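re: ur question from yesterday

yeah so i grabbed the chain u mentioned. its 580 aa long if i counted rite. heres the sequnce exactly as i have it in my notes:
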Amino acid sequence: MKKLIPLLLAAVMLFGLAACGDSSTGATTSSGAATSGGSSATSGSGESASGGSSASGGTLGVMLGTNVMSLDTDLATDGDSFEVIADCIDGLTQMDADGAAIPAIAESWDLSDDGLTYTFHLRDANWSNGSPVTAGDFVFAWRRICKNAGEYAYMMDEIGNIKGAAAIVSGEADPETLGVTATDDKTLVVELEVPVSFFPSLMYFPTFYPINEAFYSGLEDGTYGTSPETFLSNGAFLLDSYTPGTASLSLKKNPDYWDASRVQLAGLNYQVVGSSDNALTAFKNNTLNVVMISGNQVASAKDDATLSSQLKVTGAGYMWYLSFSQTEKNAQGGMLANANLRLAISNAIDRESLVDNYVMDGSLATYTAVPPQFAASASTGEDFSADQTMFSDYVGYNVAKAQEYLASAKSELGTDSFTFTMIYGNNEGDEVAKVAQAIKAQVEENLEGVTINLQPLTKAERLDKMQNDNYDIALTRWGPDYADPMTYLGMWITNNSNNYGFWSNAEYDKLIADCTTGAYISDYDARWQAMYDAETLVMQEAVIAPLYTKANANLISDGVQGIDFHPVALNRVYKTATVG
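ran it thru and got these C-alpha cells back, copy pasting raw so excuse formatting
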C-alpha cells in the first residue's frame, strides 16, 4: 500500500510546539497531529558538559528499552530484537529513508500480469562464513517459519498470502508444498494465493529473512542465534558479543557486506536501560549516544541549550491499549466476555488526561482500533484513522455512558461487583506504571463496584501470561509491521495467535477474509471500506480499549547523522548513519 507521506515534518524541530516521547511511537504536535518517521536524524551542533559528545571511533552507543528476546527470526516478536536482526541480516528488500521498499539481496524482481507470482533475482552476496547467499536460504527459512507455526507465521499466510502457507501453518500440509521455489541459486520464485500489493515491503520485515541451511543444520538444537558463533550475518554488521538475557550486546561493521561502502559506522554497542533517568545520565556522561527519554524529562531538556539541540522527535507507530481476556479461565469466570462491561471500562478512561499528565511526551490520545498516521489510502492519500471521532458512540471519556453500560452489564451478569487484575510491564518505560495507576483510579472512581488490582511484570512475563491466556486485563501495545490497516485488524480474527482476548465474530472473520483473499482483493476502495466496517465491529464490542499512540523523544549526540527512523516495521536503521 502507498505509505503515508509524513505531514508536518517541520514540527519535529519546533520543540516549543512539539511534545516528545520515551519509548515507542508517533510524535505529536500541539495541534494533535502525529508525525510519522522517515527522515534522517540530525543532532544539533556544539558540545558541552551537559550533553553527549560525538561517538568515538565511529561506534555508536545505543539504548535499548528491553532485553533482546531472540535473534532467531522464527522466535523474535519484539521491536528491539527485530532491530538487531535487521542490523545483521538483509532480506530481499530494505527500507529507504522514506520507508519504501528498495533492493537488498534481491537486485531486482518481476511480477506476473495476474499479480500472483514474484520472481526475485538475487545479487552476489555472502554470509559471514564466506558461503554465498542463495535462493535456497530463503526457501529453507520460510518453510521453517510455516512449519513451526510461531507467533509471526501469520505474516506468511494471512498477510503475505504465500501459496500453501495456511495449510502448512495449520499442520495440514508438508512444508515442501510452500509456494516458494529456488529455480537456481540466484532466482527465487514466490507464488501467492491472491495479489498482495505491498508484498515487496513485507520482504524487509525480519520474518522473511533468509537462514543458511547448512550452517543451521550443523548447530545443536535450540542454539541458533544465541551467540556470535551460532549466528551468521549477510548484512551491514556482524554480531560481536551477545549472551541471551544480558543487558548489552555489540556489533561491528561487516567488511564483506555487499553494500559495505555505504556503511560508515565501525559498530554499535547496545545497552539495555530500563529507566529514562539512567538513560539521560548515560547520555550526559557520553556513555550512550542515542537514548530515549520520558515525557517528564522533555520539558527540562528543552530548557537546556545543548540538550534541546540534541532532541529529535520521531514516530515509531506503537499503539497502547487494554486487552481483555474473554475466556472462562479468567476474569471471574469470563465476566469480561460481556461487551457492555468492556464498553463501560473503555468509556470510563480519560485518555487526554493520560497523555497530558502521565505520558507527557506528545503521545496522541487514540479512539480507534487502528492508530493514526501510518497507513493512507492509495486513492485519496487520506490517513485511515484521521477521524478520531468516528466511533464516539462506543469509545471516549463519557462517565454517564460508562455507567449506563455498567448497569446493563450488572443486569446481564447478575452481579454488582467485579474484581479484575491488570498486568503491565515494569520495564517498558517509566510512564507505563503511571498510566496503569491512573487507569485503575479512573475506572474505580467512575464505575461503582469495579475494582482493578495491578500486577507489574517484566515484558517477557506479561507476554507469557497473554500468550497462555493467564490474565484478566493487560496494558499492552502493538506496532505496525507493514503500512496497511490489516497489520492491526488481522489480530482479531478467530484463533489468530495475537488475538489475546479470544474474541470471535463470524461477520468480522468474513470481512477480513474478503479483504485478504476474497471479494475485495482486487477492488481497492471496496477493500478500504470493508476494513472500516471490520473496525466498527471491534469498537462496537470494545474488543480492545485503545489508549494512545506513542511518541519517541530521542537524544542524539552531536555529529551523529543519518539514522533512519520509521513508524513501521523497523523503527531505527543505521546503514547510512555517520559520526561527524
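noticed a couple things. The first helix runs from residue 79 to 88. also The chain is about 30% helix and 20% strand.
anyway ttyl
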